[in-house]
């Protein structure tokens, strides 16, 4: 029988055998290190308020988005304009793609040769992600040559990516305006070549009590929108502890990225999150709103907590940190070095 899944167990087992440290992660069915995980209900925001003719309703909706971005760094949205029919079509095509033989996904250069699995840089089991993904720049989504035999995927992916892009820019505009700037400020520096759609698959894991589906991290861009199935597994750091996010079939999940935290001068929070492996397979799709690589990211108010830097510089620093120490350090590398803000 041809296996569609990558050899995750082999690689995880090799890391486990060669690791001198014991696993710190023991997560299964809402448990972490034997402790029952708290399940949280993210702030739920009805975006129909933004389209209301009542200015008070518009203002209250914008206020809720901004408050959730400051207090949680995560929130859910309903009435977001992306139909359930489109989500179903996208999910069907996504599942069909990941059901292809592993060798085909790994060698056929599908979707701009963007297939990745596991964690190539992992040197310890707790650095390994039990997942596979396609990470597609928006500029390649319309390219027929990227899809190979999966031609039916192109049309629905184009429609889905456009809808997610519009929603991301709408929400970013609200958050920018809340800080006293024009809604278009971030939209003017965001570029399709650096905005991505990521198709994720977390295969069923026989050792789910010992492994991450996606290791703890923060997102590097401005904003991420997540469309997930009902399996669950997403967790975030809240009040210095991990909490599980309860799936909501009607909602999309939005989270703040590092660049928005820097631009907002820490008003909005980029929060560490992770996905836990499960005995059931899980699918999700994430859209990442990012600036062009040479865009200069500065804070929207003074005194600034962070020095100015480009997105290219930030990505290179993240990649260098992961290579050297096995993890992302993030914004702390870019703090202003004075008496108030130091490493």
TrEMBL record:
One of its GO terms (biological process) is gibberellin metabolic process. This is gibberellin 2beta-dioxygenase. Belongs to the iron/ascorbate-dependent oxidoreductase family. GA2OX subfamily. Coiled coil: none annotated. Pfam families: 2OG-FeII_Oxy, DIOX_N. The keyword Lyase does not apply. It catalyses: gibberellin A1 + 2-oxoglutarate + O2 = gibberellin A8 + succinate + CO2. Its EC number is 1.14.11.13.
């Amino acid at each position: 029988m041809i296996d569609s899944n990558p050899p995750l167990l082999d690689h995880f087992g090799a890391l486990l055998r060669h690791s001198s440290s014991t696993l710190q992660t023991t997560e299964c069915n809402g448990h972490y290190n034997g402790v029952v995980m708290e399940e949280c209900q993210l702030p739920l925001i009805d975006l129909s308020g933004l389209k209301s003719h009542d200015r008070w309703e518009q203002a209250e909706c914008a206020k809720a988005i901004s408050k959730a971005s400051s207090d949680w760094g995560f929130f859910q949205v309903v009435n977001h304009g992306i139909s359930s029919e489109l989500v179903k079509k996208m999910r069907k095509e996504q599942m069909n793609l990941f059901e292809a033989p592993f060798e085909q996904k790994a060698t056929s250069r599908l979707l701009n040769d963007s297939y990745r699995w596991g964690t190539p840089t992992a040197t310890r089991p707790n650095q390994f992600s039990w997942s596979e993904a396609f990470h597609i720049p928006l500029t390649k989504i319309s390219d027929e040559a990227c899809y190979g035999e999966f031609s039916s995927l192109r049309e629905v992916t184009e429609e889905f990516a456009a809808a997610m892009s519009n929603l991301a820019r709408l929400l970013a505009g609200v958050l920018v305006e809340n800080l006293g700037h024009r809604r278009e400020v971030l939209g003017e520096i965001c570029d399709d070549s650096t905005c991505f759609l990521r198709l994720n698959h977390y295969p069923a894991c026989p050792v789910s009590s010992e492994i991450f589906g996606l290791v703890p991290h923060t997102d590097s861009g401005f904003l991420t929108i997540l469309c997930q199935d009902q399996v669950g597994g997403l967790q975030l750091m809240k009040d210095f502890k991990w909490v599980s996010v309860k799936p909501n079939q009607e909602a999309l999940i939005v989270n703040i990225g590092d660049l928005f935290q820097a631009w907002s001068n820490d008003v909005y929070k980029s929060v560490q999150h992770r996905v836990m492996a499960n005995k059931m397979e899980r699918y999700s799709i994430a859209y990442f709103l990012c600036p062009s690589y040479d865009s200069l990211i500065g804070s929207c108010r003074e005194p600034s907590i962070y020095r100015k830097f480009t997105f290219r510089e930030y990505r290179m620093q993240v990649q260098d940190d992961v290579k050297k120490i096995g993890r992302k350090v993030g914004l702390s590398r870019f703090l202003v070095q004075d008496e108030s803000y130091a490493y």
